[in-house]
Design a protein that fits this description.
Shape: globular
Membrane topology: Multi-pass membrane protein
Mean pLDDT: 87
GO cellular component, one term: ATP-binding cassette (ABC) transporter complex
Family: Belongs to the ABC-2 integral membrane protein family.
Strand content: under 5%
Subcellular location: Cell membrane; Membrane
Protein name: Transport permease protein
Number of helices: 11
Order of helices and strands: HHHHHHHHHHH
Low-confidence stretches: 1-15
Number of strands: 0
């Protein structure tokens, strides 16, 4: 009996200690894995947005002589595409990776068997999603700067806005991906939420050109609020709506999504 207790005590002493912020251990796990796979994600997070800027901003913009609101189409669309890039990367990293960590690789279950709490697992993975979004957005900002699409040094403020948008959409998507029982539901999310949101939330054309009913649907989406802020920062003008109102709305999405995701994760991981 005493010998068994001594062995247990020795194993406890030899176990690597968690960092003072346990979520950092989860973030480190995802970063180590990403070090081996970053090339595969370079197309979706960097090359694809760059091609979109060239295709729409330069290609389509060449046929829009008068521009939009007194600026060239390339300059006008840059802020919207930056916010859309943050949305696409955040949701891509919050759907199949979350579903796979629960259903296929069982990574979350292994992490839960350690001293990590549910909140640590969730915060660590969300931090990795935030890292992915920030790297993609900064690269996108550099590309648009090279193309001459940034009219104001205030464009750097689009980066924290994109980060807040990422949390606003990633947190509820975590909850959704953890609650479905088939990955086909993830494809439905892209088909009926992400794509319509990208098309009608002011990324490619002014929301004011939509019918009133669709316009209000666009205003409800978190993407429109980020698009308005990012476009204002890139152009160096005031946004259409209140800055505080935009930020509070996005923060409410992030906070509500966190609470919902934590509840779903707790139900799936706590035995």
């Amino acid at each position: 009996m005493l010998e068994g207790a001594a062995v247990t005590a020795q194993l406890t002493r030899d176990r690597p200690a968690l960092p003072r912020v346990p979520a950092l251990a989860v973030l480190e796990y995802h970063l180590v894995g990403y070090r081996r796979t970053w090339r595969a994600g370079a197309f979706s997070s960097f090359l694809l947005p760059t091609l979109t800027v060239l295709g729409f901003g330069v290609g389509v913009g060449a046929y829009i002589d008068q521009g939009v609101g007194g600026v060239s189409y390339l300059e006008w669309i840059a802020g919207g595409l930056l916010a859309s890039t943050a949305l696409q990367v955040a949701i891509s990293e919050s759907t199949w990776p979350v579903f796979g960590n629960l259903q296929w690789q069982k990574i979350y279950l292994g992490q839960r068997s350690s001293p990590l709490r549910v909140a640590d697992i969730l915060a660590g993975h969300l931090s990795f999603v935030l890292f992915r979004v920030l790297t993609a957005v900064i690269a996108f900002l550099l590309v648009t700067g090279v193309l001459g699409a940034l009219r104001s040094p205030w464009a750097v403020l689009a980066v924290p806005v994109a980060a807040l948008l990422a949390l606003a959409v990633a947190a509820p998507t975590f909850a959704y991906a953890a609650s479905v029982d088939s990955d086909s539901w993830l494809a439905m999310l892209f088909r009926f939420a992400v794509i319509p949101m990208t098309l009608f939330a002011g990324v490619f054309f002014p929301v004011e050109s939509l019918p009133l009913a669709l316009r209000w649907l666009a205003y409800v989406t978190p993407l429109w609020h980020a698009v308005d802020l990012c476009r204002a920062a890139v152009l160096g003008v005031a946004p259409q709506w209140s800055v505080i109102g935009h930020l509070c709305y996005l923060a409410a999405w992030a906070a509500g999504g966190w609470l919902l995701a934590r509840r779903v994760f707790a139900r799936r991981l706590v035995v």
